[in-house]
Design goal:
alpha/beta, single chain, 10 strands
């Protein structure tokens, strides 16, 4: 599903060049549950942004489902993000003035789905994360764990092939964090490809395979 070869990405920080990715190469198969682990500044967020079509590399190749992402325009990348990838972030990224169900519905509106289908998908997604009884609540009326469940429901409502989770337990206590990881295990069992970005070895080892990144290089892949 994800085929990355010799990816390079360089940023300018003042007058200094920072090599965020240094000939990174990896392959992730359909329906895998993979973690990408590395310390702060290792390049894992840059790698996630490129996998998620939020950024492009300076060199190297990236194929997603056989599509040559490195040659795509911004409009094409936006279409891929909307149709193939579901995002879950550490900070939840919910819109405060929208209820849980309205937050989940938002990407479906962008897809242009008719209202009845949107309603069905929202109900289905909230049910999968165990939050149907909180559908009418605003984010401020939900706990951190519940907000992350809404974020996961929003990610899966579009029925993406790939779910990218960036430090999804980073803002949660250990018990609630494990509940969120359990949801990812359930989604994986239902056929989703999961890529989880983390700096926490205890979170990383929950995946079936762990990819280590350091100084922009894939340093180790553990099965």
């Amino acid at each position: 599903m994800i085929d990355i070869k010799d990816l390079c990405k360089v940023y300018m920080v003042g007058d200094e060049k920072v090599r965020a990715l240094d000939h990174a190469t990896l392959h992730i198969y359909p329906k895998e549950f993979v973690s990408i682990i590395g310390p702060s500044g290792s390049g894992k967020s840059t790698l996630m942004n490129i996998i998620g079509c939020l950024d492009v590399a300076d060199a190297g190749s990236y194929h997603l489902d056989g599509l040559p992402i490195e040659s795509y325009s911004e409009n094409q990348l936006a279409k891929i993000r909307n149709e193939k990838i579901g995002f879950v972030f550490q900070s939840f990224n919910l819109i405060p003035k929208l209820t849980a169900e309205e937050n989940v519905e938002l990407p479906l509106i962008y897809q242009g789905l008719p209202r009845p289908e949107r309603a069905e998908r929202v109900q289905e997604a909230l049910e999968r994360v165990g939050l149907t009884k909180r559908a009418k609540h605003l984010p401020t009326e939900l706990s951190g764990g519940q907000q992350q469940r809404v974020a996961i429901a929003r990610a899966i409502a579009t029925r993406p092939k790939l779910i990218l989770a960036d430090e999804p337990t980073g803002a949660l206590d250990s018990r609630t964090g494990q509940e969120i990881i359990d949801i990812f295990h359930e989604l994986h069992a239902q056929g989703n490809t999961i890529v989880l970005i983390t700096h926490d070895p205890n979170v990383a080892k929950q995946a079936a395979r762990s990819i280590h990144i350091l100084d922009g290089r894939i340093s180790e892949v553990k099965l």
